Amino acid sequence: MTAGGHDVIIVGAGPAGIFTALELVRRKSGLKVLILEKGHGLQKRLCPSQKADSSCRHCQPCSVVSGWGGAGAFSDGKLTLSPEVGGWLSEYIPEREVTELINYVDSVYRYFGAPEKVYGAADDERILDIQRQAVLADLKLIPAPIRHLGTGRTQAVLQAMKDYLEEHGVEIRVDTPVREILVKDGVVQGVITGGGEELPARFVVVAPGRDGADWLRQVAGKLNLKLAVNPVDIGVRVEVPAAVMEHLTSVIYESKFIFYSRKFDDRVRTFCMNPYGEVVLENNEGVVTVNGHSYADKRTENTNFALLVSKTFTEPFKEPIAYGRYIAQLANLLGGGVLVQRLGDLISGRRTTRERLSKGLVRPTLEEATPGDLSLVFPYRHLTAIVEMLQAMDKIAPGVYSRHTLLYGVEVKFYSSRLELSPELETQIKNLYGAGDGAGVTRGLAQASAAGVIAARGIMRKAVA
Fold it and tell me: For tag attachment on the chain, is the N or C end more exposed, with fewer CB atoms within 10 Å?
């Protein structure tokens, strides 16, 4: 142990950070562990705008995306049990090992209370039939078994994990942002908190989640860490009557479709499908974006999912996060937050008004969204790709390309700058590790959790060497 400090400091209490700590404890490493999280504890993670049914209040930090459990605590808790979805871990270790890790973290989630039911078993003939229909519509369906926790159950699982860690000696500090990573002669020394407290440690794991991606990029710049630019995903959240998607969601729960636009050949994908769910707000460092949830104990009449257009930028542009924020800020500027538009109005070249919205067949679950015109926000090629994808999806789910379909904007995934890491997820600075969505190596609960396990095992190997 560093004199007067901890063996391991973990920055961020999302799935990557939590599973780093869990693995260190479950493997009886004997290491003294401290978790630092800038957001609130689980019981204090309350969104005032949702409680008061009002517009986003721009809380800092945002309780929806920050705090114990990370953004996943208020997501609908879907564990995608496939190495093909949810990140790039197979670029660091063999895909066989990624599969083994995903199965391992899945068993840990079940130990702490995740349900046994899995949607989308690989041998289900109904999935093969959906794949055949998708091919005829120029869509690719990626079969991915999913264990659905539901938002309420996710929080119970995360609380059980927190209780377990504290019972086994892990120190957890919420409301404690980290300002700086301390390094000397190429070796990590610890961290400095936002309050100026210096905390020494032999090992540091940075796992700040998507909300901390920009912070990690700035830290990497100060430490001269190499970064690769990931694609930036920008799009809309689509809301339709649940009956439109029922024949898909009852089999797969979350249908993961990939489409390449005819006009520009841009990659478009579905993401985070929420049967009988609701659309919600997120505050990403002052920029209001949109997301979706499903709950274990309540249902709405709608299903929502994201359509995201992926763009990889080349030299000289190196600021994909800034680009995504800029697009989202346009929507905030025009509507004071998130915009919502009927597909029929978008196609007709007119803005949606409150009156037109009230005539629609789809009642918006995000009532505080401002009716407006998304064509004033998105680049032409993004809108073209989104409309083409909706047309393709309508062939396998008639009713998706309806004039009543609602489009919310903007949804952006800020996992754009990827740290250059070893197979054990160690940076070029000795004993400094990166894990999870904020480090750009994952983009979902299962692989983020697996990344934490990889980092923990790497630390244990070094600690006993």
Answer: C
Query: 240: how many CB neighbours lie within 10 A of its CB?
Result: 24
Tell me what percent of the chain is helix, strand and coil, each rounded to the nearest 5: 35, 25, 40
Which of 431, 413, 339 is CA-nearest to residue 378? 339
pLDDT for 85 = 85
Whether residues 176 and 242 fall in one domain: no
For residue 256, the enclosing domain spans 231-413
In a domain, 130, yes or no: no
**What's the full length of the chain, in residues?**
465
pLDDT above 80 (res 284): no
Number of domains in the chain: 2
Give dist(CA 20, CA 201) in Å, integer: 15
Residues 250 and 345 in one domain: yes
Domain of 196, CATH number, reads: 3.50.50.60
HEC profile for 384-449?
Answer: HHHHHHHHHHHCCCCCCCCCCCEEEEEEEECCCEEECCCCCCECCCECEEECCHHHCCECCHHHHH
Q: Angle between the 95-111 and 15-26 helix axes, to the nearest 10 degrees?
A: 80
CA quadruple 203, 421, 76, 335: dihedral sign: positive
Confidence of residue 52 (pLDDT cuts 50, 70, 90): low
Establish if 247 belongs to a structural domain: yes
CA distance 352 to 361: 14
Whether residues 428 and 406 fall in one domain: no
